[in-house]
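Can anyone check this?
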Amino acid sequence: MGAQFEAKFANFIGYLTDGKGIPAPRASLGLLEQFLMSFAYAYELHRHIGGDQDAAMLSASTDAAEQGGDFGVQLEGDFRGQPFAPTRLISQTDWAKDLSTTAQVLLESISAIDDSIVFPAQVAAILAPLRPFFTEYQIYAMVFSNEADPEMDKEAQELFEKMAHQTGPFGLIFKPMHYSNFLDFLDPFPCVQALAEQPTDFPAVVFWTSSGSAIAFNLGKARKFFDRVVLKMLGTEQAFRIPSIIESRRKAQLTKRILHLSDLHFGKPESAARRRYLKSELEKICKDVDRVVVTGDLFDNPTADLRVEFDEFRSDVERFTKQPLILIPGNHDVRIKGNRLTSLGENFKHVANLWRPFEIDHDLRTVFFCFNSCEEGSFARGNISKQQRLDMAAAYNEALAKESEIASYTKIALVHHHPLPFENEPEPETGYQRWLQRIFSPDKFVEFENADEFNKWCLKQKISLILHGHKHFPRQSMLSHETLVVGCGSTTGVEETPMCYDIVTLNTASDQWTVTFYMDENGDGSGFEVQAVTLPS
């Protein structure tokens, strides 16, 4: 059996298939209603708030649902102003019909009068009647494809349909549709986390079981695994072995992980209060991390005492990983309280010997371009000169002439200032900041002045990832279809922000990567939890 659905509904699907009791995902009420609508009628319902339902389309959808087999109407439109397409169900039983009927009943029981957030307990209660349709299968699989490549998507579609039909009542196969070159998930479910931990070429397939075992393959390996393992065991006495086979194959896959920290601000009271907790967290996670990078603002003020404090921290991290720390300066590392006017307030001496502009890691198959965005710019602004870009390009070309294999390495740029503007600024906490925002735009004193020039340079150099700091809130955005921009937030949670870090996972065989965002929301030691995952397709 199978379902082909909008990618934005993936977390609902993952939650419904879970057998380990993971929390339901957070969601807007509007998105939850869209999800139920997509299953209730298996087509895209054209409706506007306050408008009438299309009676003809309603009749067509009901007839399709009553057939109990494959159904789906190839129509596209929008629901409450948000575009989505109907879910297509594949079934040789009454599963599709009964699922659709149950979804219709649930849809009628909720009233989406706004787009407010529905918390996990509420989502769980609303979706509870759907769980029996998605649980207790011997195997699950989700096919991820890049629709921008029609030929590859055709192969992925064929495999999806083959698996959906051949698994019969023992398996449930999914395929998300309609997404860009990057997939990102808030509150990612185990299937997505598995793909984040095991990056592979797209199209990709993740197989998992209700016990939590999961593995990701590219399309070719997925086809072999399905034919040689899954099909032979489904519906037999050997089906119980599937989870252990998945686990053993997962452990054999080779991946590398980069831990991204930022904005430690040693010298801030909250940073000092959380130092011991952060150290214990890093000691735990660094066992599975290959390199650690810090994108600036190591300390709050460029003083000798804070440099000593940071050196102690650096020594601990390097002891955990057995690798040198990769870092770049932030405005607080080279300017008094992070600000300068012309050359007044500038002090590079406490960070001058801490960073190198160019780093090659052959084990990771990665080139790090480590920029200093604080060489120019007044107040807390950033700027990267043409000369620095030239020097960086020259260093790469010289390294390439000596070691031609680095041409195939993943390229990551580290920069402190955010190369793309923040569209939604948090409410300023001080009267002075509020006064400034009345006169200037929120980014006025902290902006990356020549970000456009830097971004064009990164695109020309085919940089895959830009990791930055400066802003104390995590974020991700696309510079292009091939370049993702990732802001870490503040790892120590200064200025009443969450404690944040992210992990970049690299598959050294395929040069594929993913990003997983972690957060201790209250900064009180309640624990770092996965908040979001980004998968390049």
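Reply from J.R.: I decoded it. The mean pLDDT is 81.
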